[in-house]
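Can't paste images in this forum, so I'm doing it all in text. The chain is below; anyone willing to post the predicted structure tokens underneath?
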Amino acid sequence: MNPFKEEFLKWLFEKNKVDSTILARYESTEIEYKESFSFKGFKDYIRTFAGFANNNGGYMVFGVKNSPRKIIGLKSTRFDDLDQRKINQYFSEYLSAEIKWDCFLHKVDNKKCGLIYVKEAKNKPIIISKNDKKIKEGQIFYRYAGETKLIKSSELQNIILNRVKKRKTEMAKYN
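Text version of the structure:
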């Protein structure tokens, strides 16, 4: 599956009908905007990536100001020079399980925007496995409408119940 299909990108970067300088899409359970990309600050994104993986997956879009949702474009080439091995190392260092992700560079109005798509995790929950300034080992983040927060008990219970149901289905194959 290609998470960066042309139709989807058109939808994601669709302009507001009243003000064409603003994007129509708000931050949501599957979209997060960032003005710039910094590999140095990548650890700050870990919470959101884990939250996306624990929900239905999602896109972090770099080069878009959040309020109002204006495309400002990426000013540096840091996203162009993204080292996928290094990002995988961060993920394996800070997260309890592997997450699947992909990245894409997209031009809108002659401005570059970087996108990182995180797929929904197969083995939820994804748990923080290392302490840092903004995250603690054992924390579980979840993507809610327009924000990533510590998971609420109802979502964690659903993840656990779905995992148990999946195991029972797998076991039934062998009985």
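The domain at 6-172 is CATH 3.30.950 (Methyltransferase, Cobalt-precorrin-4 Transmethylase; Domain 2). The chain has a mean pLDDT of 94.
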